[in-house]
Design goal:
Helix content: 40-55%
Strand content: 15-25%
CATH topology: Rossmann fold
Distance between the termini: 8 Å
Number of domains: 1
Order of helices and strands: EHEHHEEEHEHHEH
Shape: globular
Structural class: alpha/beta
Length: 212
């Protein structure tokens, strides 16, 4: 089996990382197998902590993630082995009991806040992408998402954004943009940038096919 193409897709919270990953996934669906691995699924397990203690966790700091597990499972996929991927329960602020079996694929889309910040993840990425979306748009998207999908209150979302999300973005996420091979302003709305990225991915996959 040839080595898969690993594409890291980073950007601020609610920048459009998932939307871009899904567009890329759909674009290759008829030609090769593509999977999306979300760093958010690798938040550390907090089931041993009382609920009120879980609320104090800074979920926008790199330390909130079990990157050792992510790296080991990414290595397994690269080696052609299936993994049992964790999932996260955003309502209860801990790892879910649900495990998803993920089969290896030709293209692995790795998306998350810190996939360009973590050295071990960067080493495994063939293409590094940064989704560059204005802060006000990201905040509005996050507000709508967290209230509707994650059971948060308006006040809690605003407090979290002001106290941790914005600070951590400026400290860790924004600086990782310098490692990107491709920067996509406005995320999935930038069809020209996505088309160029698809062309690059096609070029890499074609070269890998020729080498095997």
């Amino acid at each position: 089996m040839k080595k898969p193409v690993v594409i890291g897709i980073a950007g601020g919270s609610a920048s459009g990382k998932t939307s871009v990953a899904e567009i890329l996934c759909q674009s290759f669906a008829d030609r090769k197998s593509v999977i999306i691995i979300r760093q958010d699924d690798y938040y550390k397990n907090q089931s041993h902590l009382p609920f009120q203690e879980r609320l104090k966790t800074n979920y926008d700091h790199p330390f909130a993630f079990d990157n050792d597990l992510l790296v080991s499972q990414l290595d397994a996929l690269i080696a052609g082995k299936a993994i049992e991927k964790p999932t996260y329960d955003y309502v209860n602020h801990t790892r879910s009991s649900v495990v998803e079996v993920v089969e290896p694929a030709d293209v692995i889309l790795l998306e998350g806040l810190f996939v360009l910040e973590d050295e071990e993840l960067k080493k495994r990425e063939d293409i590094k992408v940064y989704i560059d979306t204005d802060a006000d748009i990201r905040f509005i998207r996050r507000l709508k998402r967290d209230v509707k999908e994650r059971g948060r209150t308006l006040e809690s979302v605003c407090d979290q954004y002001m106290n941790t999300v914005r600070v951590m973005h400026e400290a860790f996420v924004e600086p990782s943009k310098r490692y990107a091979d491709v920067i996509i302003p406005e995320g999935s709305h930038n069809t020209v940038a996505i088309d160029l990225l698809l062309t690059k991915i096609n070029s890499i996959t074609a070269n890998k096919d020729a080498d095997n």
